[in-house]
Amino acid sequence: MTGDRALGAEYFDATYERHDDPWGLATRWYESRKRAILLASLPQESYERVLEIGPSIGVTTEALADRATSLLSVDVSATAVQRARERVGDRAIIEVRDVTTDFPEGEFDLVVLSEVGYYFGAAGLAAVLASIVAALPEQGTLVACHWRHPVSDVPLSGDAVHEAIAGLGLHRLVRHEEEDFVLEVFSRDARSVARRTRLL
Q1: What is the pLDDT of residues 27-37, one digit of tens each?
Q2: Looking at the domain 9-196, which fold is it?
Q3: Beta bridge partners of 143
Q4: CA pair distance 118, 58, nearest whole angstrom
């Protein structure tokens, strides 16, 4: 991996000041479809404790709240957090937090790392991934999804992020790859959905 120039709160706050929904999360079919694939790829119907890293304006957060007993979403941008809180209300705890230096304490049954890994830079991503692995319990799951096309001001590619995740030693349950994005599900538990639900 190359690219240690992490993008921080100033970059994202400025982006949200220019656009209410900078990536069209609430309006683009591309985003709606990708979100549906992510949610359908989760190996369990529901989770006790979920961590979402980088909720942006909270569109995916809304959907995750239906699958979680407790949902914590953290974003480095105070502007994004405010918009996510307005959308989601009290269905999730949404905090301003830089996970590269201040990762939430405790274990999480599911960690969602969607469209944010490449902003951390190589060193920041390594720190975040180490924290995620430490936070996953015996059957804990990590779902990661990232854009694959080049972006000039982003320090890492989506493929580089997923190469780093593949080296964590977790079991890969799902790999969905398109020209535009790659989505993978990793878990400490190697069982398939059929085995988890006792169909086999």
Answers
A1: 999 999 999 99
A2: Rossmann fold (3.40.50)
A3: 112, 185
A4: 19
